[in-house]
Amino acid sequence: MSEDIFELTRSPYYNEIINGIKLVWQDNFSSPSVTELLGSIKFMTGFNRDIREIYGKRKLIQTEGMIKENSNIEKNFQIMDNILLNMSCQIKSRHKDTLLDEMKKGKEIISSLFKSFDEIERIDEASPKYSSNPMLNELLRVSEGVINGKFPLEPLENMIEDFSKRVNAACEEFNLLKKSAEPYLEEEIKRTGMSYEGLIEAINKAKQFFYSKDKGQLKHAMELVKEHGEKLIESQKILEAEKKEPSTKTCLRCGTANPKVAKICIKCRMTIPDFNSEGKSSQLDIKLQGDDVMPGQGAPMTENIYRLSRSIEDYKAGNITKESMAATFEWLEKKIVNGRKQFEGQKKKKTHQMPEKDRGIMEEMEKLTEKGISEFEEAIKDFRDFLKTEEEHILNRGLGKAIEAGEKLYKVQTMFQSHQRNI
């Protein structure tokens, strides 16, 4: 039998099924391989159901060009459900040839699904843009569709509620971070704060539409949302331009002195940000994003760790006060508290219906996350102690723990991304 039959697809989940079928062929339906294959089929069946539900909601707010592709996606998901069901029957009946036929049909459906996904992405990229921020752009697009009678109300209501939560969380973080900003940024911080206030007020006005059903009110509210949202984006650009690098080439992890041109530590391979001694640091970031990775070639340094280490280095260099650094500690502590809550909530929702291979990866990620969060919590304790004692070795110890914790959580991110399934 040709190996081409078992050629893999763009779907990692379906690839597990292909590999499982290949294995049961080789060992003639032994009990362990059959159990693993049935588990992979069951898991993909549940995953397809979730994706189908997402696309079912998306079709309510899609443009005309996407409707055809969305219809193809729905049809192909239904066919795939039948294929997976037939596969389970053929496995239990030990019908090798029929099982292979179902597998080949499934590969054709996967190929068709990805063609539709690619076409939807192409159409989306070619669509008119309302904002450079993807979240704001989608909100404005859907609200315009509601105003023009093209889209129903429910998807927009859910989107506005989600957007409201994100903006309020970002505003809360901004109010913490502005405590550590330099005085020369006072005017820009004031403008940013006013934009947040205006955006939150505009969002609340948009929410009133779902009671009044006054489309004129919604149109006006969304114009305000766009106005204040764009001002926030502009403030982000200004504040980003003010960000400067740490005033040292000393490695933040191991303390090794490195040449000014160094990109990574010559000893421990930790990334060292580019050196720039001019200007001051804004210590401010209003982006609604996760903990992104700073550019570099060595061990990763995420934005959260970069901000923390920069604050500590600026304090040591006399560029900021202890109070400003304490505001950064307060910001980090809030992130860790929220991270702990989110992690504990995810553990409660953990599904047991997954293949053994995925379960092992998930358990490893869970252990790493627990260690990372715990180390961050220990680092916060050290930072608190330093604020009381001003003993520098305690401060350095806390930074070391935070860096180690950040690396663990970054590893979890990369593990998740490499195993995240598209279907």
Features:
de novo design (two linked rop proteins); 3 domains; mainly alpha
Summarize the SSE layout with pairings:
Elements lengths: L11 H15 L4 H28 L5 H30 L2 H31 L7 H14 L5 H25 L8 H27 L2 H27 L61 H14 L5 H28 L6 H34 L2 H28 L4
Count of alpha and pi helical runs: 12
Mean pLDDT: 81
Approximate strand percentage: under 5%
Distance N to C terminus: 28 Å
- Series of secondary-structure elements, N-terminal to C-terminal: HHHHHHHHHHHH
Number of domains: 3
Helical fraction: over 70%
Structural class: mainly alpha
Shape: flat
User: Poorly predicted ranges (pLDDT <50, ≥5 residues)?
Assistant: 244-248, 275-299
Sheet of most strands: none
What's the β-strand tally? Answer: 0
Give the radius of gyration. Answer: 26 Å
Provide a descriptive summary of the structure in words.
The longest helix is centred in the C-terminal third of the chain and has 34 residues, at 356-389. This protein has three domains: 3-126, de novo design (two linked rop proteins), CATH 1.20.1440; 134-140 and 149-241, no CATH class; 244-423, no CATH class. It is mostly helical and 423 residues long. Helix 2 (31-58) runs antiparallel to helix 3. It has helices at 12-26, 31-58, 64-93, 96-126, 134-147, 153-177, 186-212, 215-241, 303-316, 322-349, 356-389, 392-419.
